Every structure is written in C-alpha cells, then in structure tokens.
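The data layer described in this paper is built around a simple, fixed record for each protein. Because each token names a local backbone shape, the row as a whole describes the fold. We quote a single record here, exactly as it is kept in our systems:

***
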Amino acid sequence: MDRETSPYDAMTPEERRSAMFRLDRRRILECDVFVLDGRVPDEGACVELGIAHGQKHLQGSEKRLVGLQTDSRAAFIGSRLNPMVRAALDYIADDEEALLRILSANGARVQPAEEGPHERT
C-alpha cells in the first residue's frame, strides 16, 4: 500500500491505518507461514499469528501454522519463544531448508522464489 497513490492519498492517517489493517488481515487469513525473527518476535507478527490461529480454531480448520525463526537468541529460559506464540504454531523451522521440508510434508506446493533486486544472493 503506497499512501501517495489513489485512493490512499485522499485518506486521513486514521483511514489509511484502518485500510492497511483490513488489507493485512485479509492476507493473513490466506497465509500459513509467519516470520518470527529477532530476539523476540515483532508485535505485528504476534497479532497476525493470533488472527490466523483464531481463524483456524473457530473454523476447526486443518490449516497448519508454521513459524520461521532463524534467530538463535532466546528471550525465555528453555525456549526462544513466548509460550503464547509457540503454542499457536504447529511447526517451527530454524532455516529455509527446514521450512521447505515442513511445507512439502504437509502438502504445500513448494516452489523456489526467484531472486529479485532486493533479495540476497
């Protein structure tokens, strides 16, 4: 969402925040992988995971929620994740290879991403 383009350029800051939340929520309900890097996961990622877990729980869905956490720093003794975050996930991958194995084993069609101008080689 680019706030300098229509229709966002005509919105107030509060309207833009609300539009961004609705767009993000819609995309969250379609995804099943959450990036949790950092010593502790970002607040937004935690909210997104909560929304996805709530949808899964309320719908009785078989959807799998997978966390990708490549950062080895731990915020909690004996665990890298807060129990409220860890318990919402079905799997945690420590690297991209583990993530691809988890997704493949759970029926996801895994296709390598093409390198873009902002991606590392």
